[in-house]
Amino acid sequence: MKKTLLLLTVLIFAFSTQAATFNVTTSGLSYTPATVTASIGDTVQFTITQNHPTLEVSQTTWDANGTTPLGSGFGNHVSNFEVVITASSPDTIYYVCTNHVGSGMKGIIVVDAGTSTAINEVEASNIAIGPNPVVGNVINYSFTNQVSPSSITIYSISGQIIESVNVSTTSGVIPANFAKGNYILKAYNQVGEIIATEKIIVE
After folding, report:
1. pTM of the entire structure?
2. Phi and psi torsions of 118, nearest 5°
3. Of 64, 48, 114, 58, the residue nearest 85 (C-alpha)
4. In a 3-state reduction of DSSP, which class is residue 7?
5. CA torsion through residues 167, 170, 175, 178, sign
6. How many C-beta atoms surround the C-beta of residue 180 within 10 A?
7. Residue 85 in contact with residue 63, Cβ under 8 Å?
8. Which residues are bridge partners to 37 per DSSP?
């Protein structure tokens, strides 16, 4: 009986969980907020300027206030960008402002993998990709649950934007002219909310 109640609780939680979008901005010589706790499927949006180049680094570099890039990181950005938390994301993502890290301008994203299954189940239910793995140079998509899509963005496993297209119909195709591998597809509505997330494989 206890196991049944526990299973029901987990299922209710899974189907009530939605992926979140976090916003990181700059204020003076600091990031606001400087610490974000995000789950797999969440998006962290950075609003920055050329005055605050933002670079992902290792914990060692972060601790030393250094600016050595992390080879597998999201790179160096001088304008607004997004980081999508995926199953392959590290437990903690460390980043710095390369111009002002000496003044303590740095931040972290703590990855909480505890709700990854729930998020993937709920969001994936809004979209169907067929076939998946993708064959050829196009991705066929079809939205369900009467959602209203506005754009679709394809991210690499490390969270970099690979392709972003505007869409106005609930079914169609988008180009897949990129290297073979695993990717994350995210769909947004007219106000920028995430309405669907799906893992895709390009062959």
Report:
1. 0.53
2. -60, -45
3. 114
4. helix
5. positive
6. 9
7. no
8. 110
Give the CA-trace dihedral at 163, 169, 173, 179, to 10 degrees. 10
- Which pLDDT does position 30 carry in this prediction? 94
Buried-state track 81-92, b at ≥16 Cβ within 10 A, e below 16: bbbbbbeebeee
Q: Give the 3-state secondary structure percentages of the chain, helix then strand then coil, rounded to 5.
A: 15, 40, 40
Q: What is the CA radius of gyration of the chain?
A: 18
C-alpha of 41 from chain center: 6
- Under 8 Å between Cβ of 142 and 130: yes
**Is-contact 111 93, C-beta < 8 A?**
yes
In the chain the domains, ranked by start, together with CATH numbers, are 18-115 (2.60.40.420), 125-202 (2.60.40.1220)
Residue 36 bridge partners (DSSP):
109
Q: What pLDDT, on the 0 to 100 scale, is given for residue 119?
A: 37
| DSSP category for residue 134 | B
Angle, nearest 10°, between helix axes 2-16 and 116-124? 60
Residues, the chain: 203
Measure CA of the first residue to CA of the last residue in the chain; give whole Å: 45
- Amino acid code (one letter) for 79: S
d(CA 11, CA 36): 26
Point out the residues of the chain with pLDDT beneath 70: 1-18, 113-125, 158
